[in-house]
Design goal:
Pfam families: RCC1 (PF00415), WD40_RLD (PF25390). This is RCC1-like domain-containing protein. GO terms for molecular function: guanyl-nucleotide exchange factor activity. The strands form ten sheets. Strands 20, 21, 22, 23 and 24 form a five-stranded antiparallel β-sheet that branches. The chain has a four-stranded antiparallel β-sheet with strand order 8-9-10-11, with no helix packed on it. The protein starts with a strand and ends in a 5-residue tail after the last strand. It has a domain of 79 residues. Helix content is 3%, strand content 43%. It is mainly β.
């Protein structure tokens, strides 16, 4: 393999972060460069091994990869962080999240921008606090992670603190009471949070030590510490099944890599590559998937392991279905399939993971209420499932039972999906939206669009 070289100028500080999708142990795909300076360019295609680059100290003069597995050259003392390199350019939007009728993006400068509405329901003529264009959540605050549930949002600042806003009907914002929260409020005082996920009315977060925590609607969270949960509810005066404060999830000692949430369902990926779930999916307990005829009255328990594989790479959860990628790029789906959101070519329920489009290798995925978005390793964008609002982006409103390509571009990097709208980011960092726009979730004034449209305010 011919070497690829990129030059970065300036001191390497904590402002330099390389966010990527590592799709297998030996193949990496497009990444994104975050730093304070604007004149940063890194252009690379593939690497046959996960490279290491200096991070957090020293002066980085060049990055050079060869088949002989040479590491980066640098000046000064530097700690090393395992990173994967990909095609980089001047970037705008970086991390994108969507849910309900709301969209959020963390830009290259780590500022958080959002638009749409967190409390809107169809039928409202004029939803409150509608943001038809991107607006910052504080101009000086720096963020590192964001997630959007059906009616609430969660985000982690770069100092490790956790924040939430939106509906608090089930305690998912963790503020006490049930009043709606219009702007980000800090959850407790810990500064060790890393990743977040929002469901219909429950919230999840992973700390830097790998522990997983949940709060909000407990039937989807299922904390292991029942005694502490009861005490917390009692202290908060709560008589519902909700958890008013973060509670530990999963078995003691387990280390978690990522987590995703649906209506009443939680899916989490352990650090050992195994996949676990708890709650209910399409009114079926996770313990009854093998027998779809069993009623939803089965006790809520979990987590339970999904299969025996130890090579799961990334996950996504829709309203009542789930998706997961293996390290080899294969895509698997299960759950409700009424609108073809599983992409298997039919509309039958799948109690266990089934492979979608065998032979195709995928890079990333997103699940909406009942539509799915995914990017292949070649950078092309695909969609399937419900399409009554044009949320697939293929120019029609026809439901698709199998993946269809959206446009002909091969420069897509990441995707996110809301209730009836879709969001995608290209490798140049531009953000694109399409689908329903009744609450301004597309970031423009259009009523709706059936194909990707640039969010020009973020250019």
């Amino acid at each position: 393999m011919n070497h690829k070289q990129a030059k970065l100028f300036g001191p390497v500080t904590t402002a330099l972060k390389l966010c990527c999708l590592k799709v297998s142990a030996f193949l990496v795909w497009p990444a994104t460069l975050l730093r304070q300076a604007r004149s940063c360019f890194l252009s690379m295609q593939y690497s046959c091994f996960p490279p290491r680059v200096p991070f957090n100290a020293g002066l980085l003069s060049s990055v050079r990869l060869k088949a002989q597995r040479k590491q980066a050259s640098f000046v000064g003392m530097a700690s090393f962080l395992l990173l994967s390199l990909g095609l980089i350019g001047p970037v705008s939007g970086q991390i994108v999240a969507a849910g309900g009728t709301y969209t959020a993006v963390i830009r290259a400068d780590s500022t958080l921008w959002s638009w749409g509405n967190l409390t809107y329901d169809p039928g409202w003529e004029s939803p409150p606090d509608r943001k038809t264009g991107p607006a910052p959540q504080g101009h000086t605050v720096r963020w590192q992670s964001v997630a959007v549930g059906e009616h609430h949002a969660l985000a982690v600042r770069r100092d490790g603190t956790l924040w939430a806003w939106g509906s608090n009907a089930r305690g998912q914002v963790c503020l006490g009471g049930t009043a709606r929260v219009s702007s980000p409020v800090q959850i407790k005082s810990a500064s060790t949070w890393r990743q977040v996920a929002g469901g219909y009315s429950h919230s999840l977060a992973i700390r830097t030590d790998g522990t997983l925590w949940g709060w909000g609607y407990n039937r989807a969270v299922q904390t292991r510490d029942v005694k502490a949960a009861n005490q917390a509810r009692s202290a908060a005066g709560s008589k519902t099944a909700s958890l008013p404060a973060p509670m530990p999830l999963g078995p003691p000692g387990a280390s978690w890599r990522s987590v995703a949430a649906g209506e009443r369902y939680t899916l989490a990926l352990r650090s050992d590559g195994t996949l676990w779930a708890w709650g209910q999916i399409e009114d079926r307990s996770v313990e009854t998937w093998a027998d779809p005829q069993q009623a939803a009255s089965i006790p809520w328990r979990g987590p339970i392991q999904i299969g025996t594989s130890t090579s799961w790479q990334s996950i996504a959860v829709g309203y009542d279905y789930a998706l997961a990628l293996q390290q080899d790029g294969t895509l698997w789906a299960w759950g409700n399939n009424e609108h073809g959101q599983l992409g298997r070519g039919d509309q039958s329920y799948a109690p266990n993971p089934v492979q979608i489009s065998p032979g195709v290798r995928w890079q990333c995925l997103a699940a909406g209420r009942s539509h799915t978005l995914a990017v292949r390793r070649d950078g092309t964008l695909w969609a399937w499932g419900h399409n009554d609002e044009g949320q697939l982006g293929d120019g029609t409103t026809s439901t698709r039972l199998s993946p269809v390509q959206i446009g002909t571009d091969s420069a897509w990097r990441s995707v996110a999906a809301g209730r009836f709208h879709s969001v995608a980011v290209k490798r140049d960092g531009t953000v694109w939206t399409w689908g329903n726009n009744d609450a301004g979730q597309l970031g423009n004034s259009a009523e709706s669009t059936r194909s990707p449209q640039l969010v020009s305010a973020l250019r």
